[in-house]
Every structure is written in structure tokens, then in C-alpha cells.
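Deviations from the work plan: none for this task. Representative record:
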Amino acid sequence: MKTTLNFSDHDAFYEQLVAAYQGLDQAQSAQLNARLLLLLANQVGDQAVLAACIEAARRPFVAKVPTGV
Amino acid sequence: MSEPAIQPGGYALPEYAFAVPPEITEGRVGRYPLVIIGAGLSGLALACDLAERGVATVVLDDDNTIGVRGASSRGIVYAQKTLEMMDRLGVYERIRDKGVVWSVGKTLAGEEVVYEFDAGAASASRQPPFINLQQFYLEWFMVDRIVELGRTDLRWKSKVVGFANRDDGARIEVETPAGRYVLEADWVCDCSGVNSFVRDSLGLDTHQARGIDRWCISDVRFKQKLPVERWTWVEAPFNDNRAVWQHLMADDVWRMDFQMGPETDLEHVSRPEVAAERLRRQLGHDVEFELVWVGPYSYRAQLIDSFKVGHTFFMGDSAHAMSPFGARGGNSGMQDADNLGWKLALVLGGQAPESLLDSYGAERRPAAQFNIMTTRRTARFLQPESPAEKLLRDAALSLAREFPFARNLCNTGRLSNSFIYGKPPSSQAQKHLVRNASVGEAIQNMPVTLPDGKKGALVDLFRGAAAFVGIWSDVDPALSPAVIRQANACAPLLRMLELNGDALGLSVVRDRGGKLGDALGAAGDRPMFCLLRPDMHLAARIVNPSPARVKAALVAALRDGGIGSAQ
């Protein structure tokens, strides 16, 4: 999983992403999220990278487990 | 239209006579090399396989007919590897003649097809990818074949009511219409299904996980022609946007399978008038039909820790159970039998060490794990467990209408194919046409010209007693004397052939169409020897072979199946 900048134009990406939600209600926005997620995931393709991304995205919502050491 | 009612007309299942066993007539405890408990798909396949290989067995079944009581059918789809096994056992032609051959599957959401496959395009086997047939017909044909082979003691109305494992076998208590008796066995194979008494009496944990998903089958006979294809709706407008399966079986009977809500009253939805109304919503109100069978079901996943406990093997649903998606239950039970049959035949015949029997669980338990994982993924797609999951599925379905990649995400079942032994789940690709097969992979039943000049298929080399087939290709003729000596020394346990040529002076198997050479990886530019097991899985591929290396591969295959040691 890449954790340093990989966008060819990050500011343009963010502007376009935000604009995509304009005029959509909450349900439509959620649908857009899900469609975009699947489209992007297919661009990545590699299962190991996708698994790392899923884990990283989920990190704030997972209770920290003491390592026991 | 007449009042809806269940009309199982057209099915007249055979009834088999109970014969008083010698244990009762002679008042003695019989002892047998192998007792099979349960005459369902896996038990009959194992008995038939062993009979074909010349091994006598005793089969105990608590019923006196095939199938589940009544005219219901459990399994309906038989996959290529199962059909190839049935070809080897002499049952295939009856299956083909009675069943429905198909290869096209379609997944629909609403009125639209979102995913479509044709498994026929990637098949080189004499058998089609799939044949649909009511399970009891397949069992029926196997019973007929077993009786014809004449080596099997089929004991109907014989219910196992007591079981004890011993160091050298097992003691089995049987209840019959003529009273109870005891028999002993050196080896036992328990094929008695998901509620196995033997398994439970030994206290074996099944690690059961029950799903909340509920379905209701309606088997229906009607005159309207529908396409001979597997249609699966993820969201069917005529079923409150829940899933529906539509499949043709023999005798013009269609299997319609409706997903119900998790809170459904199963008794209500399986009433004939309720089932009939559901079918009218699907087929239109002017279509006349007969309900052959209606029945609700739920499913569970379970898997025991060891497929061999003492001298008792567990096979089919008694070892592993899963949801029906992808037809992995019956087909995997048959593959269990395909895997264990030759091993038992060789060990009972004194041709292989007992360690070979441990490879049954080592190979088939990972296959069961894979099947459970695969069916669980389908179930999860069909029954989203949260609004977030439903959102993702909606996105997959909407993208599938626009873009090819998303069609593959619409998972209504990954259909059963043969398992590649020794390979992790991520290597178990859904493919049928194999090039340069992995060690552990099954070779399809390719068309070949047999050593006697007749046109046949690969499976024809594997009929009769359990034997390996070794295929030499592109080998230096100077090796001929040593190879011929070894071929003579290893017969009949290993049948040595050469592919296409006659450089070595062995019997020749000729590739009709080049598919066998492709699968074996015989490219014409390197000397090679491939060792095929009696279940047609590749045990070894040796480049630059010598008789010493061939012997080592055979010894390994007899010791542990050959595949683990080849990794």
C-alpha cells in the first residue's frame, strides 16, 4: 500500500471529488461512495494491497488490542 | 385451474428388499474389511468405485429406497469431475440420457442480465460442464451399477444404532426389521449425512454455524418452454426483490427456488396455494403447472476436525456441510469418494502402506474448507447483513449494468469444480481448460486414441483395478530398455504409456486435439514423465526423467498421495 503521495494532481482530484457530491442527497451520496469505491478498487486490483487499504481505513473504528508484552 | 396440490406423479422410486443378514440367520458376528454407512451420493459412489476396482464392501442404509422420502430432490447439478467419475464407473450414459446438459448461466437483477457465463467454451472433456438431474436418479443408477458389478452387500432397512471405534477397526450395532445384530469392520466409512449418528456418537465437534437465510423450493412441471440455462435473480421483482433460482431437471420438472425473508413463517410459505401464487407471479397467471414438490430449507456450515478417526473415515455431509450455492455439497461428497476409493483399494490389497489413507483427510479437508468459504461468500452476497452491505451490493449491481469488471462481483454461486490438492485457496481458480496443470490438479477427461487404436477418452485408461498411469513424452529412445524393464516391473500398479510417439516401444496413447499434451505440459521440446493417480489428479511431472526418479515419484504417491511431497 502506498502511503506517500501518488496523485498526479492531488488538488484537482480533491476538487473534482467534492464537486461530484453536489446536488446529491445523503442516500445518493452513499451510493456514489460505494460505486466509486468499487471502481477504484478495480484499478488497484492486487488483493494484498486492497486488504492493506481496507485494514487502514478501518483502523479508527477498531478497539486497540493490547499486544500483551 | 384446479385447486393447487402437490402432485408427485411421474416419479415411481424403486424399493429394495431387505434380506436377513447372515449375522441373524447364523447367529454370529460378521467381520468385514470395509463397511460403508449410508447409501446416499458419497456412500454409493464409494461402494461403486470399490466394486469397480474389485473390492467387496458392505453398505448399510436405514431406508429401502433412494433419495429423500417422498419425491423431493436435494442435489440437482452434477459438475464435470463428478460426471467423469461416473463415466469411469459406467454410469455416465444413463445420467446423460436422463439429465439436462447445460453450460450457460445468467445472473439477473430485475429484468436485466448483469452477468453471464458459458462454461462449455472452456471444456475439453468428454463430459459437459454440468448436467442437471434429480439426485435420486443418480443414486438409482449407481445402485443398479453396484448390483450389476455384484461385489457389494447392499443392506437396506439397516439402521446403525450403536458404534464403537477400536484399535483395529469398529464395532457396529444394526437395527433391522428382523432384529438387531452386531458386525465388525477393519475400516468404516461414514457417509450417513449431515446428522450422522456415528459422528455424533463419537462426540466429534462439527463447528456448526447456522445462517439466517431462508429459502423455499418449488419443483414444478409445466408445458411452457423456458431456456435450458441456469438463471439466478439477485433481486427478482416477482419475489419482493429477493433472490430466485430457475433450473431445469429431468422429466420437464423445473426447480424454482425462492429466497424468503429471515422472519418468514416457513410452514405458511410452503403451503401449496402459497407456492402456487408465488409461481404465478413469476410465470404469469395463465400458465398451467403442477407442483411436484414444495419444501423450505435453511442451511448451515459445518466441518469436523479430522476426516479419519481411528479406522473410521467421514465423507460427504457427515464430514462437511455448506449452503447449496454452486452445487458444492453433493459434488464434493462424490469427489471425497473419488479420492478415497483408490487409496482404500490399494491399502486393502496390500499394494500401499496405511499412511496413504491419511492423505484422504489431508487432501479433502482443505477442499471442504474451500467449499465452505466459497459458498459463504455467495450467501453473504445474497443476504446482506447490514444496510452498508446492501449499499455495496446495490453499487455492484448498478456498475454491472455498465462495466464488465463489476459483473464478476455479482456472486450467485461459483459452480463446483475439482480441487487442486496441495494448493492454497487463492490458487483455486475457476477454470476448466487446463494448460500445464499444477501437480495436484485433475486432468480433464480429454479425447485420446487408446493403445488398442480405438477412440476414447483419458478415463478409459483408468477403468478396473486401481492403477496409476505414467505418460512419457519426447524421451530419448536410448532410454527404452530401462523404461521397458521398469514398465514390466511396475505393472499392473502403474501402467506406462508414451504420448503420440513410439520411441520407447511402450503402448501409445494419442492425443486427439492436442488438449492432453497441453494439460500435461508436453511441449515437444523437453523429455518428460507425468504420473497420474487413479483419480486422474496429476501426482508428479518429471522433466528429464529417469527410471530412478519415476520410481521415487511412485513410492511417494503410494506413501502419501504424492502431492504434498511434491510441493
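The longest helix of chain B spans residues 355-382.
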